[in-house]
Design brief:
The structure is a single chain. The protein is an alpha+beta fold. It has helices spanning 5-12, 73-77; strands spanning 26-28, 34-36, 49-53, 68-72, 90-91, 94-95. It has one domain. The strands form three sheets. Strands 1-2 form a two-stranded antiparallel sheet.
Amino acid sequence: MGFSEYTIQKVWEKGKVVSGNDPNVWRKDQCEAWMGRAYYGNRNSQYGWEIDHITPVSEGGGDEFSNLRPLQWENNASKQAGRLTCAVTASGVNNK
């Protein structure tokens, strides 16, 4: 499903702001993995990120803002049975 630019920006703003980094460019996800704002939807970048449904649509979750969060793409892809597993975390300025 495609999200509007407004929704993408609002979900981005839910990411963790890291002191010393421009929050319009860099944030971290719930797993502490780096995300780059310009890399939304980019699975070819270690900084790529996606919008995740906290409660999956298949389990009754919807597209309401409270059910959406930004996740580094590998963390989003590694969710199993609707549960977040942190496949990627930060190591300095890189993800590992």
